[in-house]
Amino acid sequence: MKVGIIGGGRVGSRLAASLREAGVLAGITAASEQHSAQLAQQFGVSVTDNAKLWQAADVLLLTVPDRLIGTVAEELAQSVIPAAKVVLHVSGSVGLEPLAPLTQLGAHVGSLHPLQSFAGGNTQLAGVYMALDGDSEAQDAGKKLVELFGGKAFSVPAEERAAYHAAACICSNYAVAVEAMAVQLMARWTGSNEAAWEALLPLFKGTAANLQATQNPAAVLTGPIARGDVCTVAKHLAALPAAVIPAYCSLGLATTSLALANGTIDENAADELRNLLGGYYG
């Protein structure tokens, strides 16, 4: 199996590195000829274009931004001859509709989304869950790639991709937003955002370690809401800047439900917290 990559960003480059190590990288292209040439040199493959890559590869991975998947598929369909290739995009939220022009050429289409953040560096792929969708041939090829990457394949149907991607965003993107919010608050006493993050990082790492050590994230919940400490939460709300209160209350309401489900607070404490947080939030 030879694999080509269309898209030379962080995701494409990271996957290309693994494919090169496995000896199955047919080539990689980017938005410009110059960037394509740089990537070819980096990964030790011949300079190519999308049409030639279609001919050389058994499987094509489209690692372009979500908004460009349909455009790339349409342009590819207009420049290549029909063939039973496998084409997989790597978006977590996009369905298979943008790849429709390629199905008319006999291609088997699907998606392979690594449930991982590609912020930079040598992003870990081993052990990472990777969501598959597509026809049987596309999913079979996807499973082989997941195995090559050292990941774990699982299926997410097209109609549930948005909910799946929302879960991923809550886990990754919103966690970053929450930490950034904490940094902005803490910087008042540390003198800078950098020092604020340095101060908060051990707390974050401790929480991350607790999460990593459990099979149930809810079980490691601590803090005033987990204790039913309504007075402390009220003090927080009185002290916080107005801009932060909606997020604090929204997170607090979710945390209240979690604490109640954990059994660390009773229904009376939960009602007090909901009334307090809901009053500010509303």
UniProtKB/TrEMBL annotation:
InterPro entries per record: 6-PGluconate_DH-like_C_sf, DUF2520, NAD(P)-bd_dom_sf, OxRdtase/DH_put_Rossmann_dom, TM1727-like_C_sf
Top-level taxon in the UniProt lineage: Bacteria
Any Pfam family matching the protein? DUF2520
Q: Where is the Putative oxidoreductase/dehydrogenase Rossmann-like domain?
A: 1-114
Q: Domain DUF2520, which positions?
A: 129-254
Alphabetical list of Gene3D superfamilies matching this protein: NAD(P)-binding Rossmann-like Domain (3.40.50.720), ProC-like, C-terminal domain (1.10.1040.20)
What protein am I looking at?
DUF2520 domain-containing protein
To which species is this protein native? Answer: Phascolarctobacterium succinatutens
